[in-house]
């Protein structure tokens, strides 16, 4: 992409040579590929469609292409009008005495485009801008950030090792998102022969069914969603469910309690499943909620009090004092200066 930027900006003798050698009477974006051309030109042809999406031109002398350069701000005119044209008309061809020749433009493009008045910087050259950068100049960092696809899975695995989670919980979560939890169907895939049965109903025990789909666990998810004023997403994916909880608040961060809520639900669902499977205790959502609240109380009282008021508060219809008892946490009423203790409900000290 850097090569294409240098080539299109015409800032060197090398760029001018390539234009004269390969483009001549054609715009660089429509020059057909020829395998007899040089390896450098081959690399430019491979990247040009991607790189052109981030190029924008400000008008000065009007020497850029009217059809194939992006001076409108969205796309080149040839792409907006779906025209396969090889004309080499410059933007200044549609000017008259330093301003737009509207009558000539109307004979060429539809009325909505003809009415678009793009400012002209008289006495200056056309300037190329890299839209992926805040400064308008190309940089490898901004180019990479523009084209890369951020991995949700990587962020998820980073959240798993949160300092507020015990190592035992983190290891379990890592195994869960790597599909290494020994549920019945997973063991059957490994060659073990035995019937599969969920601990709360007669359905087959799979990862998605155990942790999301069955009605008992859905009651747990719904219980905590109501406390935080959320409407649960309809998904069978653990990854989507965790990211829903993380990004459903405008204050999403590693410090927010909503980052930990799904992890703790998954952990106590697993412990309740093991208790029901190996100890014969009936599967109960009340036990999951009770263990969750007890763990959260322990976690919050072990953490140092957060003294900043109003940091990372979720979108709740209830006040903090009203919400605290719902989570099984005692809230002391007092003046605003003394609210640092129970604000730990929403913010974890890292």
From TrEMBL:
Superkingdom, taxonomy of origin: Eukaryota
Name of one Pfam family that matches: zf-RVT
Domain Reverse transcriptase zinc-binding residue range list: 138-221
InterPro entries (alphabetical): RVT-Znf (IPR026960)
Protein name per UniProt: Reverse transcriptase zinc-binding domain-containing protein
